[in-house]
Each structure stands twice: as C-alpha cells, then as structure tokens.
Amino acid sequence: MGAAFFYHLTRRPLEATLPVLLEKSLGVGWRVAVRGRDPGRLEWLDQQLWLGPEEGFLPHGLAGGEHDALQPILLTTGQAENDPTCLMSVDGAEVSPDEVNAMERVCILFDGHDMDAVGFARTQWKALTGAGCKAQYWSEESGRWEMKAEA
What we know:
- This protein is of the alpha/beta class.
- It has one domain (3-150): Rossmann fold.
- It has helices at 14-27, 39-50, 97-102, 115-130, and strands at residues 3-9, 32-35, 61-62, 73-76, 86-90, 105-111, 134-139, 146-150.
- Strands 3-4-2-5-6-1-7-8 form an 8-stranded mixed sheet, sandwiched between helices.
- Helix 3 links the parallel strand 5 (86-90) and strand 6 (105-111).
- The longest helix has 16 residues, at 115-130.
- The mean pLDDT is 95.
C-alpha cells in the first residue's frame, strides 16, 4: 500500500524539482510515470529533462512511442504503459485512491504561487485521505523540504 506525497513548490519551479524526485525514484529502482494534463506542457518538460546535466541524465520518453513499455520514466496524459511503481502528478493531473494504493508512491507536485493549483491540491488531499490513503504534505517554504502534515 503506497502513499501520496504532496509537494508544495514555492521556491523552485517544477522543471527544477521534478528531476530531483525522478533521480531519487530511479535510485531506488522504481519505474515512473509523470502524468500531466496538457500534451504541450509534457513536451516542454521532456525538453527540460533532455537539457539537464549529462552526468544526471534521466532516461525517459513521451507516451505514444513504440518503446513506451521500456521507458524507466514515461511522460503521459493517461495511463502509463511502462508499468510504473511511482506516479508523479503535475499540473493538476488526476490521481485516484486506487492508484495511490497500487503504487509504491504517488507524488503530487503543485505550484504554490498558483491559487487554483493550491485549491486543487487541497481537494485532492481531502479526496485521497478521505478514501483512506496515507498522505504527507511537504513544503519548501523554509528553504529546504520539510514534512508539515501527515494523514
């Protein structure tokens, strides 16, 4: 049974935080799906991941290719074909309680400067914890990541 970790981004943007979480996930042997809502935004994230440092290369692909099932990290707007053990939700992509329970971890990253994103994250927290999912809320407000709440 997994848990949902909510990451409230206030100091570093998604394109800086996501690679750190992806590297840690790959480091423990997880396959990862990054789920977004907008294909154009996922294409942009794909480009950001390619522009990272060579020594920190993160093997990944955009959904829709012939090798989706082989990707350690797959960026998608729907169900992932790479049999992930970790799901990262960005830009308000939906996550169900069943997905939280099926994964090792679900990470929900949201922009703390976007009040709609904050409101949606609160709704997700209530829905997931109300369904009995374990959850943690992490904030970088102090300059480093700190767990602020747990359910």
